[in-house]
Write a structure and sequence with these properties.
- It is a single chain.
- By secondary structure, the protein is of the alpha+beta class.
- It has a single domain, classed as Peptide Deformylase, CATH 3.90.45.10.
- The protein is built from three helices and six strands, in the order ααββββββα.
- The longest helix has 18 residues.
């Protein structure tokens, strides 16, 4: 089966429905990881990017991580990062992100902690993919470049 990435804001603006079960989420997550493995530049993918209305996303920076119905339950510090997205190939946006986040989801017993200091790309990617599940794109997190050109 071939997948294409959602490229239109209206498709990515709708928050995803909760995934009904851990088994469904693991299945979708494994499918997302399989698709992501075929991408040279991708480090994360959300279900709605391939047309699935389910709150599941994956991140593969230092290791593959499947997140089912993830929520950011703690957030600290702020930093800036230049982001890209498989749904907007060739576009890059300077965003403001949290430097430390705590995630709660349905498939990990303990909360997960991601830190800019430990792995900036992974920390940003987790936030980027959770944003997709909530109908938010990197463009919504963009900061004005002029702030840095002073």
């Amino acid at each position: 089966m071939s997948y294409s990435f959602a490229k239109y804001l209206d498709l990515l603006r709708k928050p995803c429905k909760p995934c009904p079960s851990k088994a469904d989420g693991i299945y979708i997550g494994n499918k997302l990881l399989e698709i992501l493995a075929g991408e040279n530049d991708g480090v994360g993918l959300a279900a709605n990017q391939i047309g699935l209305d389910s709150s599941v996303c994956v991140v593969k920076v230092s290791r593959p991580i499947i997140l089912i119905n993830p929520k950011i339950v703690g957030k600290f510090g702020r930093s800036f990062f230049q982001e890209g997205c498989l749904s907007y190939e060739g576009d890059y946006v300077l965003t403001e992100r949290w430097t430390d986040i705590v995630i709660s989801d349905d498939n990990h017993t303990n909360q997960l902690f991601f830190s800019f200091k430990k792995n900036a790309l992974e920390c940003v990617c987790v936030q980027h993919e959770i944003d997709h599940l909530n109908g938010i794109t990197m463009f919504d997190r963009a900061v004005e470049k002029e702030l840095f050109d002073g």
